[in-house]
Amino acid sequence: MKLRRQKHAKKNMGFYKHNFHFSEPFQILLDGTFCQAALRNKIQIREQLPGYLGGSTQLCTTRCVIKELESLGKALYGAKLIAQRSEVRNCSHHKDPVSGSACLLSMIEDGNPHHFFIATQDQELANRVKKKAGVPLLFIIQNTMVLDKPSPKSLAFVQKLQTDQLVPEYQKQSIVQLKEKEGLAKQEGAKRRKRKRAGGPNPLSCLKKKKKTQEGQEPSAEKKKRRKRKRNRVKAEGVQSVQKN
């Protein structure tokens, strides 16, 4: 079971490395629910996570998460200590702290440019994270940490990327300008104009065959008549010569 879980983690990490350019050290944003679950299940996050993800990691959190844990009192004191031992990433809520889930969501806006992982046991937060492309999700189940498979949003993003549907407009314009500069656009247009269309039959083959005219037949008929008259004249002369004798 452990080998199977490790194999799935390696496959999922390969997906994020190849398609979203994740690299070491991997930055793991912890919320209070994940810290509490790790404490309850006696999971050493700092020691176990690098081996599971196959690379060095940095445990991170935000001031809003720590403030939220402090406000919940002694029940989450241990979770607060875990969060405080993590590196604090700056958020945009210095003066007006928000809930931990809202703060973590703000950290992965605009395409998750800092390549954060989100580690949480909050199902509502997890569902909202899955609606964003390129955000790996970690949670704890059955006393073990699990890297969730890529979300449908991430898969759809990669599919569009592979079919060149996400090429920025300025890049498309620069490609057109380069083609015009090199004269490739004119050549392509000329090729399109020279392309032969499917033609019909040869027009000369459609002409009807010429029939023999009566004018062409009349000379031969006239010759036959002349020959007949000559033969009759010869016969008549022969009869007359016989009678005289």
Automatic annotation (TrEMBL):
GO biological process entries: rRNA processing
Pfam families referenced in this protein's UniProt entry, alphabetically: Fcf1, UTP23_sensor
Biased composition (Basic residues): 223-233
GO cellular component: a single term: small-subunit processome
Region described as Disordered: 184-245
Family: Belongs to the UTP23/FCF1 family. UTP23 subfamily.
Protein's job: Involved in rRNA-processing and ribosome biogenesis.
UniProt name for this protein: rRNA-processing protein UTP23 homolog
